[in-house]
Structures are given as structure tokens and as C-alpha cells.
What we know:
Chain A has 19 helices and 31 strands. Chain A is an alpha+beta fold. By secondary structure, chain B is α+β, with helices and mostly antiparallel strands. Chain B contains 1 helix and 7 strands. Chain B is globular and about 45 Å long. Chains A and B meet through helix 6 and helix 9 of A and loops of B.
Amino acid sequence: MAEYSVVGKPVERTDGRIKATGAAKYAADLIAPGMLYGKLLRSPLAHAKILNIDTRKAKALKGVKAIVTGKDFPGIPYGTRPDTRDQLPMPVTKVHHFGEGVVAVAAVDEDRAEEALDLIKVDYEELPVILTAEDAMAPGAPLVNELSKSNIAYFSDFLFGDIEKGFKEADYIREETFSSQRVTVGFIEPHACLAEVDPTGRVLLQGSKQSPYITWRHMCRALDIPVSKMRIVNPFVGGGFSGKHDPFDIDFATVKLAQMTGRPVKTVLNYDEVLAAYRQRNAMNAKLKMGLKKNGQITALRTECVLEGGPIAGIGPFNIYYFGAFQNVPYKIPAIEYHGKLTYSNRAPCGTVRGQEIVLAQYCLDSMLSIVAEDLGVDQVDIRYMNAVTSNWHAANGLIIDVSGLPECIEKCGKRIGWKESRTSRPKGRGIGYSCASHPSGVRLGGHFGSSVMLKLLEDGNVVVTHGGTEIGQGSNTIFCQMTAEVLGIPFESVIQGVSDSDTTIFDSGMFGDRCTYWNGNATIAAAKDLKRQLAEIAGAELKVNPEELEFKNSMIFHKERADVKMDFLTAVRRAYYEKGSPLYGRGYWAATDIDIVDWKTGRGNLAHGLDFIATGVMVDVDRETGRVTLIKGISADDAGQPIHPVMLDGQVNGGSAHMTGHALLEDCLYDEKGRVLNHTWRDYKQPTALDTPEYIVEHVHTHDPYGPFGAKGAGEASSCSSLAAIANGIYDAVGVRIKDLPITPEKILAALKKKEGK
Amino acid sequence: MKIHLKSNFVMPGVEDREYIEFAGNEITLRQLLEELQRLSAPMPIEYVRPGARALDPDDWEAEINDIPYQKCDRELETLLKDGDTVNIKIMSLGGG
């Protein structure tokens, strides 16, 4: 294994102190001279025609400066794909879900804006409500989205391998159904933004955004302005987890209010609004049919998946795609048939949540694997080891797994959680659940999908990094500073993180899908090498040696073989600035151009590099009297390639596990029969706290990914993909009841226990 | 004339068709895309913005017989021949 000076070391986070001391400025903290305050009036109905909006009284209120409705926008739909553009900035003819922003007000203070909302009268005509996928697909069901001809927003049918042969070769076949609920995304910071318009009409938007490029392009389209007429700057972001990619009504309304008034406008949501009306994970119904040999080897898998996604397609097509295409990992399945559908509904719009819908696919797959392992009398660890993908594996859809540490992960996890020992002795009501998962380090979507990094070397020898990725709390700024320091042979403290600003940064396509470390990391290395090359030329000329024979270490530039031929790093920098007047910029870019662009029609191709792997074991106690589940211990053995920052890597792995604890056991966005959200406060919506999470232990399996930066892979999402099934399987192991519809509440466990005991 | 269709997505209106046929023996790439837009109704997919000289590269890529349309002599106005293959790829902006 290579020896590094900065990479692989637990350096202090670049943003650690300012965040911990409260000094970091988030969007809600921003203030601009003459700033107005924005507020949104929300729909009390889930589905209704907008007959009339009377804003006269509100407009007459002193201090109210502007009011915006959907009619104030150009009427250009936007959306993730050009064939699913089904969103408008704000509703025009009808509302689609409870809490949808219908009117926005800008006033001199928040109280005045609130008061104005009370004076606005909206006349609605209620429409029938679609709440479930079944409702949506029923014959004669009312259409949810007026820009679509159907309540099926998207579908995919994939076939990999010879499915008939696969089932014919099976000694055992079993079918099961699984379902999962709506959950919220779970970031800490609610949506907020500040919009300003300069005298030329150019917009500056500073918002809490996960992927500012996505926001930027979609907004410019829907506002019918070129991207050069909008500048977007990201302040600190308090978490994203896939819930902050898109522009929302708050962003559009705030920009429009700023355009109308010529004054800065800031809008900050409260969390009740976020829980009621913004992104959630799809509700899922899935049916699996699995074929296996007697020894537990999988021969075929057939999956039907229906996701209910609210009134927009959004990134739902990706969710459908991921669910189907990535059933090809983490297990060797020679034949897969997949049918996926995304339906509209009158519930809150869905995006996704950490791990995307691989989370749901893996919940189904690994729950199924535990069921059939028991049926066949095969050990839970052994069946996973036997089917685990290995290095250089070519999956049925063409995905090539370059490096897999999964078999070792499975072994390590099994040993650390004491699986074998638990089979002979364990306390009553205790169980161990097992699951594996894999997640790609970014797929290739086509269009703008490269990553770029710019380094500016200052005259004092410090380097400023700007990159198109987004620091949303995961630590990407820190690791790019580490990589820069490593390549240039300077201290980590000499690398400074610059601002994410569309005027100075070439934006990345987005911070999602475990791609940031991998793609931007490679771009960072390329930029640092570019800078190094320029410095080597300066030093080489002065030292009269070939620049290619120079090495950089400990802030020195020296000859590889003649230690006395050397120059101080800072001297080389000053030669550039003081004697040549030459600025020193390093430019780097990277894209995996040797993998296939996503084929939405077939799901086939070599879809990604850097598949990261995880094996998760969860020890649980289940109280048979109350049904309460207590998580005792969680072991994650992960293969994320070369850890860049081992402590943050642990945090990512454990964070994913903790995050999904809520999905498995607690969380559920509840709606009444009219589509009104019932639990949109933190009092009523149950997310896990530290008291609900177990002792977590991470075992790293070090591999070296041939394409990854320093051999690293993505890391933030695999543990979220393995956690649901591990918990469900653990509960079954503890008390012998399997709950197949999430969340697994005490009530469901008690009911299942009673049924099992014939009560 | 027969134009073979390839795509990396399910094209609304021609979901199960490997080709489409036209009367006459001349059609430009633009006209083909406009026809595909017409066929995709009632939720028409805009392949070419009215009056645009090129496809929006953030939305679509197109190839004629494996050659990017931008490299063909007349780009969107390139005349397609009987038996030509047009490959339309969707570009997406987003992720999760």
C-alpha cells in the first residue's frame, strides 16, 4: 500500500471549527442592505382547481412590496429530463399537493409578510385525490399532472440474461412482496435563499443547494433567461441527502419578488413547511421472485416495483432505473427481469434520499435472501459470501466490477458481530440481521457530467481550491484540500477552500450518487499535477535539471537522485510571481468517458466505475411484551477503496446506517384521506436520535480502485442501502416474525407475534 | 422511405417501433424530429425549439448513421435517405 503524507490521515476538517462554534453563515443568516422578507401562502388542499386569487387587500397592506403567483412566470415547464418536464415554478390552474406554494409575498419584515398572507383569498374547487399508486393506475382515475397524459409518470422494463433458463435451473423458487413508506429526507437546515438583482437585471441567488448547477439550469429555463443572467453562490449548506437538488417554489418566488421590487429578498422556510410539502422518498410496492440452487446460489430474479412519487416525475426516472439496473450488484445474479413504474399522486413531491432507490431494491433483495436461506437451510453469512460479486466480475447487464472487497467484508462483518457464536447461544429476544450492498461512484448521464477543479497558488505559497462539487456536510472540501496537499507536497494547512460561485467555478453536474470524491477527486489530482508541472518548469530551469526529474515533498522541490539539488517551494512560487509576473493556476478536469452513458431503455452497459461495497450486521433486541426494538450493535465492513480521511469515512458509513434506522423503524409521512399531511412537525414525525442508534463499528477493507483518486471509491451511500434489510432480518432472527411493510413498528411486531402464537 | 430509429430512452409515440415510414423520398433531420414531436402528443416532447439552429446539447444528442449530426453537412437540415438510422440520446440533468 502506498505511503501518503496527508491522504489517509484524519486531518482537521476545513469547516469544523467554524461550524462547531456557530460562525458558519448559512442561507438563513445572510443579510443584504434593503432586504425584504418573503413568505409563501400554501394550499390547504391536496388537489383542487384554482378558481381565483384575490390579493387586493394584501397589496394594500403597508409594507407589502410585491406579490407573486404562478401566472407571473413564463409558463415554461422544467424537469430532470426533456421528456418528463412536468413542473412549473408555481401552480397556475390547479394545486397538486397539500402545502404547495400558491402565492408569495415580499414585505419589509416577516410579520408584515405573514399578515399579508392572511389577507389573500384563494378560491378552490376540490378535485378527487390520488393517494396511492393503486389509485393512480385505476381505470378512470383523474389525472394528477395537467402536463401529462397519464398517471404513470415513467416506466422501465429491463431484461438481463436468460430469465427462463435461470428459473428452469433453479431447485427452489419463492415469491414475496415488500412495501415501504413515504419518508422525509432528513437534512437539518430547512430550505432558504436570498435573491438579488443588479441594475443590469442579472440575478444573484444564494441558497441552500446541494447541486447548484442543477438549480441554476432548471431555474434559467423556467424563468426564460440565459444562464449568464444568473449567478449562483452557495453559502454553507446544512445537509442535503438528495433533498436540495431541484429549484423549488421558494427559489422561483424569491427571485421573482426580487425582480419585481428591485430589492434583495430572503425567504426562509420553517421545518413544518419542509415536512409537509417538500421532497420525500417514494412509497414502494415490490414483488420479487427468486430462483436458487439447493446450495443457495441465485439463478434468477424477477422484480416488479411500483413507486408512488407525488405530482411530478422529478428524478423518479432515476429511482426506477437505479432500482432495476443495480440489482446486478452486490450479488452474482445471472438473469434478471425487471418491471418498474413511477406513478403520480397528490402527495408531496418525491426526490429521493441517501442511497437513492438502491436502498429500497436492496431492502427487498436482502430480505428475500434471508428468507430463502432459511428455507434452504443455508447459513445467512454463507449464502451472501457464495453469491457476492468478486473483482473483474461482469454482471448480467454488462456492468464490470473492477475491484470488489465484498467477500472479505462479509467475512469481517460476520466475525466482528459474532454470527457463528450467536447460533449456539444468545439471550432470548436477541437477533442478528445481515445484509450487503453496493453503490456506484457516479454513473454517466451524458450532457454536462464532467468535474472540474481550479487551484490558485497564492504568492505566500498557499493554494485556494475551487471545485464544482458542493460541501453539504459530507467533508468534500476537506478531502480535496488533502489531495491537493498530497500532490504538491505541502502541508494540509496550506490549502484553503474557495467559494462555490458560478462566476468563478466551473460547476459540476451535482453532488449525488457517491460521485463527488471520485470525480472531483480525480479532477483535483489533475489540477494539482498541472500546478506542479508549472512549478517544476520554474525550478528545473533554475536548478538546471529536467523538470520531470523533480519531486515535491515537505514544501521542497528536489531532484529525485541528487538530494542537494533542491529549491524551497515558496521560492519557486515567488520566482513565478515576482520575476516572471506569471500567475499560477492549476486546472483539472475528469470524467469517466470509458463507461457507457445511461441507457434508460435497456438498463444495460458498463454503467459505473468504483463500485463500493458493504456488509452490515445489526444486533437487535426485541421486547416480546411491547414490540419495542432496541439496536444493540451495528457492524459495517466496507470497501471504499483507499480511505482519504478515515474518520470522515467512518462518519459517512455510520451516518448512512443511523439515517436508515428511522426509515426501518420509526418514520412515516402520514396523510389523511384528503391528502393532508398529518405529522408535519418534529413533535409528530419521528426521526431517530442518538438514543435510538446502536454502538457502531466500522471495519475497512482496503482495496485500490484503478480509476479512483488515490484508489478511493465513493463511500456515503452504501451503508444506507444495506441497513433496512439488516434491521428487518435481525428482528426476524430475534422473534421469528417478518414484517415486510416498513416501518417495522412495535404495533406490527406485536400483531405478528400474536398471529404467530395463534392469539 | 424508411428511417430506422435508435434511442437510449423509450420514445413516446413510437415506443415499439424500430423505424418510421414517410411518403416521398426526402426528409430532413429537423422534419423527422418535428414528426416525432407530433407523434408524442398529447404531452409533446420538444426535440427542437422552434426556430433553433441546433438541438439543446443539455437535452439531446443525435446521430445520423453513427455520425453526430453536427458533423453532417447541413446539420439539422441534413437530408435523410431511405434506410438511414437516426440515434437520439436523451441527456439528463439531475441525480439523487
